[in-house]
Amino acid sequence: MKLLSIAVPCYNSQDYMEKCVTSLLAGGDEVEILVVDDGSSDRTPEIADRLEREHPGIVRAIHQPNKGHGGAVNTGIENATGRYFKVVDSDDKVKASAYKIILDILRKFSEREDDDTLDLLISNFVYDKEGASHHKVMEYRKVLPKDRIFSWDETGRFKKGQYILMHSVIYRTQVLKDCGLKLPEHCFYVDNIYVFDPMPYVKNIYYADVNFYYYFIGRDDQSVNQEVMIRRLDQQARVNRIMIDYFSDSLRSGLIEKKSRLFKYMYNYLEIITTITSVMAICSGEKDKMDIMDEVWNYLRDKDAQLYRKIRSGVFGIALHLPGKGGKAVVKACYKVAQGIFGFN
Predict the structure, then answer these.
(1) Which pLDDT value is given to residue 54?
(2) Are 90 and 16 in contact (CB under 8 A)?
């Protein structure tokens, strides 16, 4: 069994995928790199096959019809042989010195089957924004214990704009299988589900305060570009509704306990996703986008009236429904928070 499986979803990634894979090769033969060619029409399949030939036993090229980012991640999980699993997007990279520390930690816990089995490793990530002189780091020093195993009950209070995103996490592969994670195909923004659904199944967490993942921002076609987000608001709303269903159903089944630290964290995450959906609709100024926003709020109300009242009466819920210039000013403030979380332009 490999120590770590890394899935690299690739769709028409010929211009940057090799740089990404090269950064991952520093892990050596303890790591398998699953290059998932998601129905690309450029030279991506050719590059993936060449990388597999050049690095046998480490790089595996997997070709599939186009299924979207979620479908590529699903394929990565299905083909993973590593004890731990991570997703690295094809335009991103990892830092070699932090990579070594990460692998040392995973190796330390790799054979344990006792109460200290590691379910989730969290590290920092860097917003590698093109043209920026200073790169923002998403870190968790004041909210998570460092360099030891801990549970949700030992976590501190996350600030607005401070969330555990896909770039931060390495799961024990079995956790993803135990929770039955299956991301929607042909849909953007499913990385939110990836860091949401498994959390109730995570018991033991470890935080490594190292800047491991470099998240590239700057391409005009990126899914987190504001104009792109507005254009794809229907897909953001789809993810939003899926998260509403999961959170509400998990509360009713007892998978998530009310008043627990896990509940507070997941509630706040759902609140910010609903806020982002609404902010993008308001920023668009388009009636059809405002209709999508209303549909999400109505869906929340019909699904779980108590959860709806809680989110609707919160700071963001009130702000998003304020009329006039004052309302728009508050929406701009919400927008800045959302920018900090997802890094869109």
Answers:
(1) 98
(2) yes
| Residue pair 171/198 in contact by the 8 Å Cβ criterion | yes
Write the CB contacts of 329 (distance below 8 Å, at least 6 apart in sequence).
none
- Structure pTM? 0.92
Instruction: Report which of 36, 39, 8, 38 is spatially closest to residue 22, judged by C-alpha positions.
Output: 8
Task: Check residue 44 and give left, alpha or beta (phi > 0: left; psi -120 to 50: alpha).
Answer: alpha
Question: Contact 338/192 with Cβ under 8 angstroms?
Answer: no
Cα(5)–Cα(75) distance, rounded to whole angstroms? Answer: 12
The model's pLDDT over 162-216, given as tens digits with 9 standing for 90+, comes to 889 999 999 999 999 999 999 999 999 999 999 999 999 999 999 999 999 999 8
Cβ contacts of residue 53 below 8 Å, gap of 6+?
A: none
Question: CATH number for the 4-217 domain, one of 3.40.50.300, 3.90.550.10, 1.10.3720.10, 3.40.190.10?
Answer: 3.90.550.10
Tokens of 328: 């728009």
Taking a C-beta distance cutoff of 8 angstroms, is the pair 60, 52 a contact? yes
Domain extents in the chain: 4-217, 226-342
- Residue 328 confidence (pLDDT): 64
What is the phi-psi region of residue 218: left when phi exceeds 0, alpha when psi lies from -120 to 50, beta otherwise? Answer: left
Q: By the 8 A CB rule, do 13 and 91 touch?
A: yes
